[in-house]
Amino acid sequence: MTTTTPVTATWRTGSGEPLDTATLARIDAWWRAANYLSVGQIYLLNNPLLREPLDRDDVKPRLLGHWGTTPGLTFLYAHLNRAIQEREQSTIYVAGPGHGGPGLVAGAYLDGTYSEVYSDVTEDAEGLRRLFKQFSFPGGIPSHVAPETPGSIHEGGELGYALSHAYGAAFDNPDLLVAAVVGDGEAETGPLATSWHSNKFVNPAKDGVVLPILHLNGYKIANPTVLARISDDELNSLMVGYGHKPHVFVAGFDDESHLDIHRRFATVLDEVLDEIADIKARAANGDVARPMWPMIVLRTPKGWTGPDYIDGKKTTDSWRAHQVPLASARDTPEHLQVLDRWLRSYRPEELFDEDGRVVRDVRALAPAGPLRMSDNPHANGGLLLKDLRLPDFREYGVEVPVPGGSISEAPRVLGEWLTDVVRLNPDNFRIFGPDETASNRLQAVFGVTDKQWNADFYGPEVDEHLSRAGRVMEMLSEHQCQGWLEGYLLTGRHGLFTSYEAFIHIVDSMFNQHAKWLKVTREIPWRRPVASLNYLLSSHVWRQDHNGFSHQDPGFIDHVVNKKAEVVRVYLPADANTLLATYDHCLRSRNYVNVVVAGKQPAPNFLTMDQAIAHSARGLGIWEWAGTEAPGEDPDVVLAAAGDVPTLEVLAAADILRRELPDLKVRVINVVDLMRLQDEREHPHGLSDREFDTLFTQDRPVVFAYHGYPWLIHRLTYRRNGHANIHVRGYKEEGTTTTPFDMVMLNDLDRFHLVIDVIDQTPGLGQSQAGLRQRMVDARLAARQYTREHGDDVPEIRDWVWPDAGDAASSTEVAATIFTGGDNE
Amino acid sequence: MTTTTPVTATWRTGSGEPLDTATLARIDAWWRAANYLSVGQIYLLNNPLLREPLDRDDVKPRLLGHWGTTPGLTFLYAHLNRAIQEREQSTIYVAGPGHGGPGLVAGAYLDGTYSEVYSDVTEDAEGLRRLFKQFSFPGGIPSHVAPETPGSIHEGGELGYALSHAYGAAFDNPDLLVAAVVGDGEAETGPLATSWHSNKFVNPAKDGVVLPILHLNGYKIANPTVLARISDDELNSLMVGYGHKPHVFVAGFDDESHLDIHRRFATVLDEVLDEIADIKARAANGDVARPMWPMIVLRTPKGWTGPDYIDGKKTTDSWRAHQVPLASARDTPEHLQVLDRWLRSYRPEELFDEDGRVVRDVRALAPAGPLRMSDNPHANGGLLLKDLRLPDFREYGVEVPVPGGSISEAPRVLGEWLTDVVRLNPDNFRIFGPDETASNRLQAVFGVTDKQWNADFYGPEVDEHLSRAGRVMEMLSEHQCQGWLEGYLLTGRHGLFTSYEAFIHIVDSMFNQHAKWLKVTREIPWRRPVASLNYLLSSHVWRQDHNGFSHQDPGFIDHVVNKKAEVVRVYLPADANTLLATYDHCLRSRNYVNVVVAGKQPAPNFLTMDQAIAHSARGLGIWEWAGTEAPGEDPDVVLAAAGDVPTLEVLAAADILRRELPDLKVRVINVVDLMRLQDEREHPHGLSDREFDTLFTQDRPVVFAYHGYPWLIHRLTYRRNGHANIHVRGYKEEGTTTTPFDMVMLNDLDRFHLVIDVIDQTPGLGQSQAGLRQRMVDARLAARQYTREHGDDVPEIRDWVWPDAGDAASSTEVAATIFTGGDNE
Predict the structure, then answer these.
(1) What EC numbers are recorded for this enzyme (chains A, B) (predicted)?
(2) Which residue of B has its CA nearest to A313?
(3) Starting from the edge strand earliest in sequence, which strands make up the sheet with B726-729, in order?
(4) ipTM strictly over 0.90?
């Protein structure tokens, strides 16, 4: 890693001259070296230069890895190196077929970067031995492209996100070329299939360029690929339909001279880069209309340059080359021979000098310093990360004269602040969402920016807040939003993703991969911290409105907390000021995934800004104004809430208890930071047992109203002293309804039911308060009946406000605001 | 619902005559009626026939629903009705834009089906009032197409699966036409974008036909759609690239006569259906090569026939028509007027008779009986479901002379049985997987069937087990596999989906939607039970081999158990015979989602077939042969395992304890059915507390080795008496390694660590067994050291077998088999 300054690209046009034979030979030698290093990584434990005859003990006991895709990846790496050097074009490489880990590691090693960041993997015979041994070996490196791989922003695990990541990297990096290799296996995935359309969202002047390279090697694990088995015309049409100008290159499948192949491919690559330079030049002159961006179809044999047949079965150019073609090389002498011939076919003696160092002429193909794809600072985004300029969120807070004394749509308040975040950070902050930014109430941002769009425009009557450059990215694909954002963050920028809570499960597995990436990077010293991935889930389970049962699922939180505690944070702010304080914290944080759930419907505000700041900082706390406990004494019962709707119901229950059972000492606790509930040994935010006991008591009943599946609260608190006394109400996969109170009733989270829980859980009350209990039961039945008849909630419930708020906000006004806000999907 | 006999389609060619004016007028009247009923559902509480002047109180207090997509859906419904009647073509309708619930409900009502299945929604004015009121109303029906909607197999919630479901329905239904409407919003999702390629997997002779209709109404919630804003040439290319022959229809956007529009569209539809008839005729004559299947691009205004402008803002043909265009109709007199004019524009007085019944001429457009799309039995698949013919799984069992006395790859054994399941059920059972059927060890099935494929063939040298018809469906898209299978099951067939455990999270949200569908259908009497959705997760977290950290995530189980207990089952069979017994049960079950996790690597068998049957039936039990407890007494400690790798380590720990602490009374419990751990009040499979206590004791330490995230065991058992004594080891997001024992060590689930846990948890042992404890610590360190050096596990660990198995299986043989089986991704 030599610099933190990004390279300035010039989008130069090439020389127009065909390459001379020396350059072609150098490309070929580089390619042979990379392939040799790749095969070496997969198979060899010792004897890395084959200076001794290959012995069975030189072969690893467990052969793991993926050869098939690798030679295509190294071929592209070699050619890109040549072009980068010629054009001084800042370029990063996204390897969609991340299985081909050895190829990218080989590239970084040939670049010299590998030895710079891993000083024990030296540029000599011993370093080569270590390079080979560590691959897919206990205590070594993974077989896939991974955070450990210099130059990568793209995990080689789950397929489908190569183009989304590439475009995410390109946004706001006008001088960056992202070479994105798409495997034809990956191309069958849904996320990849839609991500081609990213070209309708990129701005030719203000953003960088993605060069998609569809690598058709024809096979997956055990099958041909779809795109390799449709006609050339269909494939061509598909790419044109995706908005690309395809350049088709077919590698020789027989004994054609490699130099000829290199010459032909270099010509294609130069054509493509010249077309890109031309588009960039036009864009610089103001023509930013969407061009047909070039892309390359690269058709090669799978496992190219490997053994053609093994045991009489076609291997190269078949699915049999996918993984480790000679799995029994250690135990089958003929296979060992084939491996030996295969390795020597790359002529290692020409590629490495006496000491095992790559010979100068080969090494000379690598560009200098950060022009090396493995050393490009964009691929280690933390190097380029700048703090956001954040306006003081306190100035955006809402007035809360008394608790419940004003009403807000919390995300709308957040939107005002985000508007200035956008304004102050015009080139390194973006908001991503699947057509829901306004629906999720962040529409204020459209006062200062637009949705970036580069497909056709129809005019202002219908195209509101749509323009060729803007900070909001909307496409109806959660995969795209997440993938774009990941690419944007990993290249050193900031952003957030708003989505409906139910649909965020669409990206469960993408979240997994990103969280795992973050976890691993924390242990890699040269990987600098990147901005956190921030979610805002504003259309949540408790207000379905236009949407049905299928839109209800609060389980993303459960999914998230399965990941390593050090990288995940979950916040459930109960009102607007708390949301502001929380989000300010999130946008300042690094290397986390922050999940923030905050409903978008009008709801009462409870905390002043100062209170909200203190409450957010603590993560949870007693709301003394809401309880009836005596100072210095333990309460009779604790009412706890996490989430905005549960908080409302808990307060309404506290109100009933205060009126009906004035002697009952009730403590009200509100939880913002869910991780605080966990043991301090489990999560860095976790409370100590002493702190937990001080809040929740060791022996008093706790009636806990939770936003999501109730299990999670038990899971987070099961080691706590008072756990047996915690009684949780939450979402339980029940029904569908369209009125808010009916919804909480369906799930037994309503105020009446919470009061019933208090009566049932508090010793003595069951008997003494049978009458109150029955009134609660009756109230629920009456409320249910009313909604069935009127299609709306009982006014007394709908219009309820926290009693102290009576003066500040007339209850009817409040009610009118709370219950008429429409949902917007 | 009039019949359970599927209609026999004839794939007739149309008359070739243009439609007469009376027919066109009937289509238009039907369309007007469906639109009237749709608007009525969204807005009206009373006055359904507008026989009185429209009053504000006739309007619902909360206006919810989606108008924008609806008129396009009803337009297609009307035209399909006409064509179905003429051709007697069995047809179902998949509404991708499922938001348009009112449209499909209106269709079913006009067909007469609605009143047949919901007898209180009569065909008169009172029935209309109920139809209107119930829509998106507490206690009513959801606003989306849902299980409650007759004729639907497709939930209108999360977008992206219309085509996958449609193709799933078409497989093995050679006479069925599936009209699949794809919204242009949905078309932006990843799953939908790849699902067009389903046409490479359908067999023109043996399968039905999917007619994709891309409905370009141009807008989403607040944005234009991508496909509506690319050039006609690009869109055309895209469809050709997807393998379709597009037929473009542009509805008049101005005052064009509706009859003319109907005439033009009917012509397009007839052309398309004639092309399909022609393809089917050719296929019947043996030409089953993939044709360019026709599809329709239907370009209409969004909110077609609704108010053009509201408050001066363009509404129809803009995103403003997406939801409820006149949200304040109740409180704004001008809006009420607009609504009145809008409703009356459909001329309800011509459409309903005095009693409120649909007039005969309109009703006449509906086909007869099960030819009605709303009554087609394929859309209520349970009606057509036949039991599978299941071979006696006991005959496929493996010999287990003594526990651990033989070695199997459990899924390979299952594959032998599945081979005969395939053979015995040649047209109603399919296996779905993302290129992993062989990798997951089910390759035996290729002895009797092939992978169905209809793209190009390259010949037997590379195309193994690939043919134009076969029972295995492989595409590298978990979304497609899941979507196809869902469509296949919901139309009354059987199947299973094999996937890597880590990647099954890709379909988390699809699982959600299917589980919710099942939950709701259980409460709908006319929906007959369908076959369960069966997963087989055979490449699990504990054996990563070729794959890295990114491939590790056992959290799908956690995700699944969040859903309603009555629809989910999770099984972790520890050996081959148990897997057989489990899967036989799964394939016989109905209306569940069954998740079965079973590793594919060679592993010892512990139970004879008889034992396995008993063990599976109980779901968990004491393995007496593995323990050292005295009969009739409580043990000193319980070692429990759920999952194959945890079982192996628990047994190895039990072996150590037996040798080192012969006086310690150890009980060994194995859990197959995870739901048994839950309370009987939480899950129908749950143990009673008494049963649980009998097994796990109330007060002895339980060291529990679990396949997944340890939390889940706490979550399932937190109410149990002995919960405080349960100490769980499971997967904890650690590291990446390539040797099996190193992997379990990384997660502290290894035998040595389990022994340490026993020592630490069992009163008295901590002090007395400090020496043994230290030896265990040392053994772990030595084992770790060895893997780092040799790339393989210590032979004594790798070769360990259950001591009683010593005679039956030589330990070296066993070891050789256990640790050389390669992984295959």
Answers:
(1) 4.1.2.-
(2) B461
(3) B620-622, B666-671, B637-642, B702-706, B726-729
(4) yes
